[in-house]
Inverse folding.
C-alpha cells in the first residue's frame, strides 16, 4: 500500500531539522543554567532584577551580537553566559530556515526553495531592521 | 514571591501545555508576570523568548516523529511572518480596544467550533484542491494513542494562507505567538488532524516570534533575569510535552485547547473593556 510517509531523503531531512532544533535548545539551556548559577554566586540570591545592567539593548539583533563579541572583555561572565543562551535560542529557528532552504535547493524543489528563501529574507530583514 | 527559580517551575508547566496544544505560552505567562509586578511591556517583550523556546523544544520531537508537517509549516510561515510584521507596524496606528474585541470575536468562533467537535472524531478530508496537491501538502503519522497510521490530505491552501496572514497580524499586534488562531485555521480551513495541527503550529510560532526580536531589543525591555528562567523552563516543559503528545487521545487535547481558548477570550474581553 502506498502511504503519504515521506521518502528516505525527506526522512533524513526531518532528522537533521530535529537535531538542529534539539542542539540549539540544549546548548541554550546549558548556557542559561551556567549563567543563573553564576548569577547566584555573584549576587547571593535568585531575585528577578530590575537593575538597568540586567536589560539588554541593541540597534538590531545582528549588530547586538557584533557589539557583544567586541565588548566581551568588559561584560561580566555571568551576563555573557545569559546573553549567549538567549542569542543561541533566537538563532535556532533562524538556522532551521537556512537548513530547509539548503535542503530544498539540493532537492531542486523550486517551489519550496522560493518559500524558504522568502521566509529567510523576511526574517533576516526583521532581525536587521527594527 | 516570584524569583528565577519559581518562574522556571511555572514556565515548565506552560511549556508543557503549550507544546501539547500548539501555543507559545506567552498569553498565559504575560498575565502571570504582570500579576507579580513585572511591567506589562517588559513581560510581553520577554514572552517572545518563551514562544521561541516552546516552538523549538517541542518541534525537535514532533518533526522527528513525523507528526508536524514541515512542508505545510514552511508554506504557512510565509504568510504568518508577513502578517506579524504588518501587525507590529499597524498596531501603532490602531487603538488596541478594537483589536481586543476583534480577536475575542475570532476566538469565540473557534470556541464554538471546538465545542461542536468535542464529541466527534476527526475525519480526514477525502479530497484535495489543486493548489494543495501542487504544493504536496499531505502526510501521515503513527498515532500512538490509536495505535494506527493516520493519513491525511491538507486542502484549501489559499484560504489557509490568508487565514495565517490574519493569525500573524494578531501575533504582531498583540505580542503573542497566536498559536490558538493557527490551530483553529489548521483544523477548520486546512482540515488537518488535531495532532498534526497543534504540532505544525508549534513549528511555525517560533518564526512568527522572530519578527519582534529587533523591535524588543531596540526598546531595551529585554530583562536577562526574566528571560533566563523562561528559556530554561519552557524548553524543558516543551520537550517533555513533545514526548507525551502522541500518547494522548485527540479528545484530551481538544479539552485542553478548549480551556485555554476560554481563558484567552476572557483575557481579550477584559483587556478590551479595561482600555475603553
Amino acid at each position: 500500500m502506498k502511504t503519504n510517509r515521506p521518502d528516505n531523503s525527506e526522512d533524513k531531512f526531518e532528522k537533521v531539522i530535529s537535531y538542529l532544533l534539539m542542539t540549539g535548545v540544549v546548548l541554550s539551556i546549558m548556557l542559561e543554567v551556567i549563567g543563573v548559577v553564576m548569577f547566584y554566586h555573584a549576587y547571593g540570591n535568585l531575585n528577578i532584577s530590575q537593575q538597568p545592567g540586567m536589560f539588554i539593548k541593541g540597534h538590531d539583533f545582528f549588530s547586538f551580537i557584533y557589539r557583544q563579541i567586541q565588548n566581551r572583555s568588559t561584560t561580566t561572565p555571568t551576563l555573557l553566559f545569559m546573553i549567549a543562551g538567549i542569542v543561541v535560542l533566537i538563532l535556532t529557528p533562524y538556522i532551521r530556515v537556512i537548513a530547509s532552504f539548503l535542503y530544498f535547493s539540493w532537492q531542486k524543489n523550486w517551489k519550496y526553495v522560493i518559500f524558504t528563501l522568502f521566509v529567510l529574507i523576511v526574517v533576516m530583514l526583521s532581525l536587521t531592521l527594527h | 514571591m516570584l524569583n528565577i527559580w519559581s518562574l522556571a517551575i511555572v514556565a515548565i508547566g506552560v511549556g508543557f501545555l503549550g507544546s501539547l496544544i500548539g501555543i507559545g505560552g506567552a498569553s498565559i505567562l504575560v498575565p502571570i508576570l504582570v500579576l507579580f509586578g513585572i511591567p506589562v511591556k517588559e513581560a510581553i517583550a520577554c514572552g517572545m523568548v518563551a514562544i521561541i523556546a516552546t516552538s523549538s523544544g517541542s518541534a525537535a520531537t514532533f518533526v522527528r516523529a513525523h507528526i508536524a508537517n514541515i512542508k505545510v509549516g514552511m508554506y504557512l510561515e510565509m504568510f504568518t511572518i508577513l502578517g506579524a510584521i504588518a501587525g507590529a507596524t499597524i498596531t501603532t496606528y490602531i487603538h488596541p480596544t478594537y483589536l481586543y474585541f476583534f480577536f475575542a470575536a475570532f476566538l469565540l468562533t473557534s470556541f464554538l467550533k471546538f465545542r461542536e467537535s468535542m464529541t466527534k472524531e476527526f475525519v480526514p478530508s477525502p479530497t484535495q484542491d489543486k493548489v494543495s496537491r501542487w504544493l504536496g501538502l499531505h502526510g501521515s503519522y503513527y498515532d500512538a494513542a490509536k495505535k494506527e497510521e493516520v493519513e491525511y490530505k491538507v486542502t484549501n491552501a489559499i484560504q489557509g494562507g490568508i487565514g495565517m496572514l490574519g493569525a500573524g497580524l494578531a501575533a504582531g499586534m498583540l505580542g503573542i505567538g497566536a498559536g490558538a488562531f493557527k490551530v483553529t485555521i489548521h483544523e477548520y480551513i486546512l482540515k488537518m488532524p488535531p495532532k498534526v495541527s497543534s504540532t505544525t503550529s508549534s513549528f511555525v510560532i517560533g518564526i512568527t516570534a522572530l519578527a519582534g526580536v529587533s523591535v524588543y531589543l531596540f526598546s531595551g525591555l529585554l530583562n536577562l533575569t526574566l528571560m533566563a528562567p523562561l528559556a530554561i523552563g519552557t524548553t524543558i516543559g516543551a520537550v517533555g510535552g513533545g514526548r507525551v503528545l502522541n500518547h494522548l487521545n485527540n479528545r484530551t487535547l481538544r479539552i485542553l485547547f478548549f480551556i485555554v481558548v476560554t481563558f484567552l477570550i476572557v483575557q481579550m474581553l477584559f483587556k478590551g473593556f479595561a482600555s475603553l
In short: Chain B touches chain A through 63 residues (CB under 8 Å). Residues 78 and 161 of chain B are 8 Å apart (CA to CA).
